[in-house]
C-alpha cells in the first residue's frame, strides 16, 4: 500500500549564539543568504522534492519567521501601484510556496526536543527534517534521493558527508558498513560531536533526515546528552542499534553544500552563491579576482 505523503519539519528555535548580536532579535534562519533568508532556500528545497506541508519549529523571535511566509498587503499594493511586477513576484513567492504551519518549542532543549514538538502535526506520516543552516544546492537533489531510499527500505535515512577528520568534532559522526550501492551505507552507530580520536569515521551527519513517526517514541525517552541537550543523534543511535527495526541508512552526499551556521562558512556561502548567479555573477566575479590579487 502506498504510504501517506511526506511532511517536512524545519527546526528554527535554536539560540543562534554564534551569530550574536545579529541573532539577538532575529532567528539565524532569517539571516539573508544573498537576497533570501536561509530558511526560504530550505522551504523551496522541500517543495521541489514534492512536499507541500511544512511545519516550522519556532522559538523566541518567532514573528520575523511567520511574517516572512505571510502576505504583506501594504507592500504588495505599493509595488502594484508602481507597476514593479518583478519585485512584487519576489514578495509573493515566499507566501505562495507551500502550506506552512508553526509550532513553538518553548525552551531550546536541543534538536531532538524540537523534532518531538512536531509529533501531533506529523501524526502517522513519514517526514523529512531539514536544518536551516545547511543549504543544499538546488542542482543536487539530495532530499529526493533520501525520500526514495525511505520508500525502498522503510528505514530512517540520514545524509552523510565525508569531512576532514580534524572537523568531525563539529558534527555527529557515523559508523558505517558498505551496501551494494556506493551512495548508500548502513549506519551501525552514531556519536554526537566526537573528538577526532573517538570518531568512528569521517562520515559527518549533515542537516537532512527522513524519518518515520516511530522516532517520536524514542525521542520521548531520550535523555539529555552532549551539551545537556536532547540530541536527535542519540535517538537515531537507538534506532540503529535495534535489531528488530528497519535500521538507519546514510545517503552519501558528494554535491554542493553551503554551511551557514558558522560565520566564515556563511560568508563563503554568500560569495559562492552570488558568484554563480546570472544577475550578480558578471559584476562580482571580476571584482573578486581583483580583490583576491590584493590579498
Ligand atoms: P544548532 O546547534 O546549529 O543551532 O542547531 P543553535 O543552537 O541555534 O546554534 P549556536 O551554536 O547557538 O549558534 C541545529 C538546528 O536545530 C535548531 C536550530 O535552530 C538549528 O536549525 N534547534 C536547535 C532547535 O530548533 N531547537 C533547539 O533547542 C536546538
Order of helical and strand elements: EEEHEHHHEHHEEHEEEEHHEEHH
CATH superfamily of the largest domain: Spore Coat Polysaccharide Biosynthesis Protein SpsA, Chain A
CATH topology of the largest domain: Spore Coat Polysaccharide Biosynthesis Protein SpsA, Chain A
Structural class: alpha/beta
Mean of residue pLDDT? 93
Bound molecules: uridine 5'-triphosphate
What can be said about the biggest beta sheet?
A: 5 strands, mixed, barrel
Provide the spatial order of strands within the biggest beta sheet: 8-11-9-10-12
The shape, in one word, is globular
N- and C-termini, Cα separation:
60 Å
Oligomer: single chain
* Uncertain spans: none
Beta-strand proportion: 15-25%
Please name the CATH architecture of the largest domain. Answer: Alpha-Beta Complex
Q: In angstroms, what is the radius of gyration?
A: 20 Å
The beta-strand count equals 13
Q: Quick one: CATH class of the largest domain?
A: Alpha Beta
Give the % helix: 25-40%
How many domains make up the 3D coordinates?
2
Q: What is the count of DSSP helices, taking H or I runs of 4+ residues?
A: 11
Amino acid at each position: 500500500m502506498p504510504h501517506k505523503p511526506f511532511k517536512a519539519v524545519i527546526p528554527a528555535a535554536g539560540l543562534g549564539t554564534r551569530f550574536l548580536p545579529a541573532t539577538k532579535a532575529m532567528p539565524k534562519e532569517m539571516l539573508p543568504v544573498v537576497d533570501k533568508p536561509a530558511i526560504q532556500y530550505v522551504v523551496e528545497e522541500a517543495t521541489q522534492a514534492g512536499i507541500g506541508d511544512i511545519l516550522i519549529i519556532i522559538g523566541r523571535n518567532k514573528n520575523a519567521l511567520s511574517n516572512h511566509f505571510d502576505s504583506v498587503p501594504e507592500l504588495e499594493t505599493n509595488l502594484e501601484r508602481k507597476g514593479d511586477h518583478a519585485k512584487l513576484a519576489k514578495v509573493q513567492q515566499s507566501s505562495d510556496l507551500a502550506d506552512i504551519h508553526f509550532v513553538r518549542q518553548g525552551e531550546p532543549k536541543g534538536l531532538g526536543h524540537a523534532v518531538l514538538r512536531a509529533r501531533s502535526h506529523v501524526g502517522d506520516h513519514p517526514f523529512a527534517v531539514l536544518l536551516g543552516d545547511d543549504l543544499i544546492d538546488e542542482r543536487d537533489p539530495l532530499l529526493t534521493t533520501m525520500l526514495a531510499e525511505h520508500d525502498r527500505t522503510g528505514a530512517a535515512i540520514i545524509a552523510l558527508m565525508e569531512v576532514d577528520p580534524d572537523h568531525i568534532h563539529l558534527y555527529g559522526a557515523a559508523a558505517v558498513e558498505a551496501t551494494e550501492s556506493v551512495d548508500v551505507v548502513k549506519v551501525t552507530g552514531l556519536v554526537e560531536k566526537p573528538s577526532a580520536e573517538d570518531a568512528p569515521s569521517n562520515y559527518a551527519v549533515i542537516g537532512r533526515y527522513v524519518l518515520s513517526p516511530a522516532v517520536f517514541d524514542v525521542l520521548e525517552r531520550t535523555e539529555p546528552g552532549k551539551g545537556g541537550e536532547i540530541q536527535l543523534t542519540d535517538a537515531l543511535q537507538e534506532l540503529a542499534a535495534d535489531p528488530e527495526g528497519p535500521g538507519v541508512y546514510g545517503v552519501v552526499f558528494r554535491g554542493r553544500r553551503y554551511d551557514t551556521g558558522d560565520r566564515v562558512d556563511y560568508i563563503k556561502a554568500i560569495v559562492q552563491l552570488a558568484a554563480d548567479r546570472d544577475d550578480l555573477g558578471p559584476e562580482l566575479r571580476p571584482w573578486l579576482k581583483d580583490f583576491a590579487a590584493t590579498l
